[in-house]
Amino acid sequence: MLKLFKYELRKTRDIKVIMLCITAILEVFFLIGLYGENERVFSISCFFLFIMAFVATVIIGVHSMKLLKNDLNTKQAYMLFMTPNNSYKILGAKVIENGVSIFLAGAFFFLLGVLDMTLILGKYGGLSDLIEFVNELLAYRDMDMISVGLMASYAFVQIAHWLYIIAVAFFAIVLSATFFNGKKWNSFASLGIFIAIVVVVNVIINAIFGGASVTISSTQNLIMAAIFLVLSVIMYFITAWIMDNSLSV
Amino acid sequence: MKLESINVTKKFPGKVAIENISMTLEPGHIYALLGPNGSGKTTWMKTVAGLIKATSGEVRYNDVTVNTDSRKKIAYMSTEPYFYDWMTVGDVGKYYQDFFEDFSMEKYDELLAGMSLDKKLKIKTLSSGMMAKLKIAVTMGRNADVYMLDEPLNGIDLIARDEVMRMVLTSASEDNIMIISSHLVEELEALVDRAIFIQDGHFAGMYDVEQLRVMDSISLADKYRAVYGGVREA
Fold first, then answer.
1. Cα–Cα distance measured from residue A59 to residue A96, given in angstroms and rounded to the nearest whole number
2. CA-CA distance, A159 to A64, in Å (whole number)?
């Protein structure tokens, strides 16, 4: 599976390089704004860096869905399905590549955020007063203090949730490629299946286990993350089983 | 070693692509898989390669239903190009080397040289003729038990066709099965020793080409005309 994983990484290389270049440009503007004391450049670059952290993880996920769709619905499918690898390995390599990429992207932007915050705090000590104020406000409202642990658990649940979303998307794409291959409404079928599963499952999970939030406890967030990870694994096995038994490319 | 197709049927919504195709193929032969467009040749080949799941029936390779493992010994070359756009000709070889134990980079290099293909060429810059040469080179770069070449002579010039023919003859041995589908029946005639006819998704006969010539005094091309064109046999 390592070789499949290597090629999955190669397939997503270009989009990652593009996002890294955009982030690097924004970071340069951030530093110019910060140390050149140009408030306008500083605030705009901060805003876009913040947005980029979310957009990057979304793009990685969406790009992987597009790749899977191509790998099932175009002749490129032969590159995967002619090889002596079963569907569990083929799909597994895709899921792992996606999980690793999203986790690394999350970690990268988290560390970049910490670095930039440190630079800001070094220049404008006043920001620490702002964080203290937010903590006091949350304590007054009987909520957990915003700690690194709580923020990390919330980030973790978001990554797990996104991984689950991608697992559902993979399932929907494989299902429509298997049973509606060649139909004009194939893509709409994928989308419909995807939305239906995500909405129904989310409603059920939130009703039973409660949601996840940066203002709830770390334990609750970790429970939610575990649920999403288990669901992702279940979706993976169902999807690979369908591919192995029914998919024709 | 043998390859058996047992009542293989593949149905697509609104269409039966192949129906009850049964035959046994043995090593040491080069088979021509013949039939007009849409007769089911490609569907049958893809079923053997494990790319298509049969609706009913089964393909058995060495008495075992074809599965992921049998892809290690069954090499399939599709009509359409299927390589990733970002690859170079060299990358395609590395990809095959990564996934197929029977792939020989040395043989691949020799075949590329014979076809005048540079390893640095990018896939997206290849002409259809160059792509056809690459497909055949990478497939024949394997030391497989079963080779299935779907329309290998399409889109290539006369010199390259001769090279393809040479490659097929070089790779054919008493230990492997070679199956070639093509519309160019007359060109295949010099290459193959057995011919399988597929008509409207059904098996329409398997013939020994030499026997057709000597015993029945009919060429493969004339037999083709007789089967599909309704021309009376000589």
1. 16
2. 15
B226-234, long-range: CB < 8 A, 24+ apart: B227/B197, B227/B199, B228/B35, B228/B36, B228/B197, B228/B199
Q: Which residues of B touch A246 (CB under 8 A)?
A: 53
Which amino acid is it at B84? Answer: Y
Is the pTM above the cut of 0.90? no
Measured in angstroms, the CA of B56 and the nearest CA of chain A are apart by 12
Q: What is the C-alpha to C-alpha distance for residues B48 and B74, in angstroms, rounded to an integer?
A: 8
> Shortest Cα distance from A21 to chain B (angstroms)?
20
Detail the DSSP E strand segments found in chain A: none
Contact residues on chain A for B80, CB-CB shorter than 8 A: 75
* Closest Cβ opposite residue A249 in set B51, B68, B71: B51
Contact A78 B50 (CB under 8 A): no
Give, rounded to a whole angstrom, the gap between the first and last alpha carbons of chain A: 20
Q: Summarize pLDDT for A124-173 with one digit per residue, the tens.
A: 765 566 666 666 656 655 555 566 677 778 888 888 888 899 899 999 99
Contact list in A for residue B17 (CB cut-off 8 A) is none
Q: Which of B71, B80, B81 sits opposite A82 (nearest CB)?
A: B71
Chain A hits for B99, CB-CB cut-off 8 Å, are: 3, 83-85
Which residues face B97 on adjacent strands?
Answer: none
Contact: B84, A11; criterion CB under 8 Å? yes
The pLDDT tens digits of the residues spanning A69-107 come to: 889 888 999 999 999 999 999 999 999 998 899 888 988
Beta bridge partners of B12: B15
HSE-CB for A163 with a 13 A CA cutoff:
32
Query: Residue B20 half-sphere exposure, CB side, CA atoms within 13 Å?
Result: 2
CA B142/CA B2 separation, integer angstroms: 19
Q: List the structure tokens of B135.
A: 């497909």
Nearest residue of B to residue A87 by CA position? B68
- Tell the burial category of A17 from Cβ atoms under 10 Å away from its Cβ (0-12, 13-18, 19+): exposed
How far is B145 from B72, CA to CA, in rounded Å? 9
Residue B78 contacts A where some CB pair is shorter than 8 Å: yes
CA A177 to chain centre: 23
